[in-house]
Amino acid sequence: MLTKYRVAAAGGALAVALALLPGATAQAADEPDAGKAPPQVELVLDVSGSMRAKDIDGASRMSAAKQSFNEVLDAVPEDVELGIRTLGADYPGEDRGTGCKDTRQLYPVGHPDRTEAKAAVATLSPTGWTPIGPALLGAADDLKSGEASKRIVLITDGEDTCQRDPCEVAREIAAKGVHLVVDTLGLVPDAKTRDQLSCIAEATGGTYTTVRHTKELSGRVKQLVHRAADPAVTPSAVSGAAQCARAPELKTGLYSDRAKVGEHRWYRVELLPGKELRAAVTVSADRAVAPDSGVQLRAVTVHGREIVRGEATGTGRTDALSTGLRYPKPESDDDSDEPRPETVCLQVAHSFTDRGASTAKAPGLPLELTVDVVGGPSNGSDVASFGLGHGWWLLGLLAVVGLLTGLVWGFVSRWRVTVWRSN
């Protein structure tokens, strides 16, 4: 359950960053292709031998899963495409190589025929191994088509019994930029199973839930399927460069990338005179990291001069750090019909460090970068138009206020002393 709070904290940090940029989310949501393709969900069910255990409301784990699937199939929203994949359903033998390939798509992704889907689930019987990693890869392939939002809901009662770490598999899936979320549900799990399923969920921005009752399982799976139908802003995958000259040019929108420790990721934005650049970045930890960390976002000219920066540090209370910046470009004195834009280089860096897993190796930690170009400040009430962010006007204002306060206080003090002496 701890993961749900950690993911919530990460989401809160991203929300704070996006709050700085009110136009970004609205504009990204208005993209022409937003919401047109139906969302896709694939339920991945563990059918390994351990699912025979009778510890969920007096029935077996398999019986609880089947009952939940039937209820979920009856409640699938009309605009959601649903599929079902199994792991450990067919091979009862002892050969690890064969057992670790035991995953198949039970029902194809699409608008389900409820009777057929229920009949397919009814035939399942706890059988073999627990190849979670291969099942995740298979589910990711099942959801390849289209630009719709994609979600895998993994239901299992134990750790992966194959050689490849499923958490690494989840990171690889996330690094491909397909924006596929994996939610995990552990049936009466032990500590190792909780840790592994939490890691899988965190790597893809999903959630982990411990389940001990049939009603809990049905309710949570329904909730996740319905969540897939909710409209959401989907980040566009982008790959930052090692230097500004080779960096991708970004327009207003939400972008996702990955950055290793010690690696600087560069992006470019063309900013016209009279416009203001607003940018925010969130870097999240999808693995164990040291508590002290930091993230930095810099706006730099093509000649290397820093314009403005945003920085944030953390002490491990959340899995994400966010920061942002604003850069208003003044109106040009040039009377030409086509003003020349300025190339602004955005540099992202973070200082998350290892704690049990290497953050220096690929894939790096996930980051989301929000870019918004809006009209520049038009009046003096906007502090950015006066450059107060750089401190000069604020320093001058404080100096004047301090001088006047000193003069007034001195006059009052002398007047009081004079009155006291005369009396």
The overall average pLDDT, rounded, is 83
Strand-residue proportion: 25-35%
Cα distance spanning the termini: 76 Å
- Percent of residues in helices: 25-40%
Spatial strand order of the main sheet: 3-2-1-4-5-6
- Silhouette: elongated
Q: How many helix segments?
A: 10
Question: SSE order, as H and E?
Answer: HHEHEHEHHEHEHEHEEEEEEEEEH
- The strand count comes to 15
Give the assembly state of these chains.
single chain
The computed structural class is: alpha/beta
Q: Major sheet: size, sense and barrel closure?
A: 6 strands, mixed
* Low-pLDDT residue spans: 1-35, 383-390
What value does the Rg take, in angstroms?
28 Å
Overview of this protein structure:
The chain has 423 residues and is α/β, with parallel strands linked by helices. 32% of the residues lie in helices and 27% in strands. The chain has helices at 2-19, 22-29, 61-74, 96-99, 114-122, 132-142, 166-175, 191-204, 214-229, 392-422, and strands at residues 40-46, 81-87, 103-110, 150-156, 180-187, 208-211, 236-237, 253-259, 265-271, 275-284, 293-300, 306-314, 320-328, 342-350, 365-375. A six-stranded mixed sheet has the order 3-2-1-4-5-6, with helices on both faces. It has a five-stranded mixed sheet with strand order 7-8-15-10-13. Strands 9-14-11-12 form a four-stranded antiparallel sheet, with no helix packed on it. Strand 1, helix 3 (61-74) and strand 2 form a beta-alpha-beta unit. Helix 6 (132-142) runs parallel beside helix 7 and helix 7 (166-175) runs parallel beside helix 8. Mean pLDDT is 83; it is low at 1-35 and 383-390.
